[in-house]
Design brief:
- The complex is a heterodimer of chains A (302) and B (261).
- By secondary structure, chain A is an alpha/beta fold.
- Chain A contains eleven helices and 16 strands.
- In chain A, the strands form four sheets. In chain A, strands 3-4-7-8-9-10-15-16 form an eight-stranded parallel β-barrel, surrounded by seven helices. Chain A has a four-stranded antiparallel β-sheet with strand order 5-6-14-11, with no helix packed on it. In chain A, strands 1-2 form a two-stranded antiparallel ribbon.
- In chain A, 60% of the residues are buried.
- In chain B, 51% of the residues are buried.
- Chain B is α/β, with parallel strands linked by helices and 261 residues long.
- Chain B has six helices and 18 strands.
- Chain B folds into two domains: 83 residues, Elongation Factor Tu (Ef-tu), domain 3, CATH 2.40.30.10; 163 residues, Rossmann fold (3-Layer(aba) Sandwich).
- In chain B, the strands form four sheets. In chain B, strands 1-7-4-5-6-3-2 form a seven-stranded antiparallel β-sheet.
- In chain B, β4 and β5 form a beta hairpin.
- The chains are: A alpha/beta (302), B alpha/beta (261).
- At the A-B interface, α1 and β5 of A face β5, β7, β14 and β15 of B.
Amino acid sequence: MVNIGTRISELELRNPTILASGILGETSGSIRRVASHGAGAIVTKSIGMEPREGYPNPTAVEIDCGILNSMGLPNPGIEEFKKEIDEIDEIDIPVMGSIFGKDEEEFAFLAKRMEEYGLDAIELNLSCPHARGYGLEIGSSPDVVREVVREVRKKVSIPVFPKLSANAGDIVEIGKAAEEGGADGVVAINSLRAMKIDIHLKKPILYNRVGGYSGKGIKPVAVRCVYELSRELDIPVIGVGGVETWEDAVEYILAGACAVQIGSAVYYRGLSVFAEICEGIKRWMKENGFESIEDFRGVALK
Amino acid sequence: MNYPEIVRIREVVEENPYVKSIFIPFSKTIEPGQFIMVLIPGVDEIPMSVSRIKDGEISFTFKRVGDATKRLFEMERGDVIGVRGPLGNGFELRGERILFVGGGTGIAPLLPAAEKSKHLGKENIMVIGAKTKDELFFVGEMKKLGELIISTDDGSEGEKGLAADVAERIIDEEKPDMVVTCGPEPMMKRLLDICVERRIDFQASVERYIKCALGLCGQCCIGEGLRVCKEGPVFDKDILIKCRDFGVFTRDASGRREYFG
């Protein structure tokens, strides 16, 4: 009997596919829709202290082997976001609140609010590659990461998962800092800082010029990060970056991930991607004689 | 590849003092109701319904309302813009007698829809509404496609009053098989309710703030996570009656709810 349930810290997931932050996670309706399509858990859009409009368009384009985006952290603000969370009561899978702040006080405040709203875990956006003063700019320093995680950890009793960047020097060093701060797991990686110049316009295509690259093209980078983090840390690692097929998910789990997040693949494969990946993992497990995710998690590390 | 194609404007037509149409080369197949993302370099990229479909060429029609349309309004033949599309779905014309109801710039996508309808041998009745005579457009082109009824808020042309009121009367008198509408959401919601009550087929083209245009960011979602840029912008009656936010609130660029007045 094959069981694809997985555990991340104290969260029990029915399967290892998680909706990544920034994808369809802003309205109650879209969160309910993704849950009904078989995701094991959902991460909300990153929410900050105040409403933010984000950048003008183009904010996202398809490029070779992936998506380039620079949304600029648009979000309705933590107070208004309560309206959305109040409307997802009936969802029976874990929902993690993604938050971004300029310092540890803001992160701690936002995390507390998300916990009060009834969410099941916190994802710390320490890695958005295109918003001044936030994300990657906070998450590049091990000392700041440690401090942010520590402050958040003190304020909430639900699991805290910092989302890390592969642009921040040595990701293992950042991961260790997060672990020292009391993180219950880490998420790796966010989109990679990137640019596309349109040769007809002779200018960067995104309004913000610089964006984050996601999708197939970044998978090898992300798998390497997950592998190194799994080897060096004692806390769970959630893999994200270019997961489009069950083969991708299996690869991440072999690298040590206890779950994977799915974002760009919603564009390439539609919302059925969650169920399709789960079916594929089950088939592969049967063929290989594995009964649980834990049976083959991290096998590539050995 | 969902990426802007850079094109030169072929022609600019002034439809009235406030509304212009821009014609661009477009070689892909596009259906009435579908939209394109129009990139105004360095300013913004905005969704535009296709307003005319010709061989290798389309137009989009817009009013000067914000920074992007202001810049577009100044553009001339030969200027460079970007185009992504076709995006979303188009109108599905069902039945033999179709009533088209357009309000304000919502008139734009109804012209190619009525054209297609006529081409398919259907009978068209069109109601178009504007605040005042000066703001009407496409009148001449629409008259060729069937019966056209005009309404203006101030009575300066056609019937005085709201397009929805005129449409309700026409629905009762003419018993169309289907109502196809685009315009202010409260107007479309009223027509939806009328069509639900009278059991008339119905489609509406819904407008939301569109950002990524890839179906990823979720900014344009209505109801149970329906993406206007992907599953829309045209939605059926059965879908819209389940959308608790349709006709109630839209969302601003940050995702905050903005209730219709």
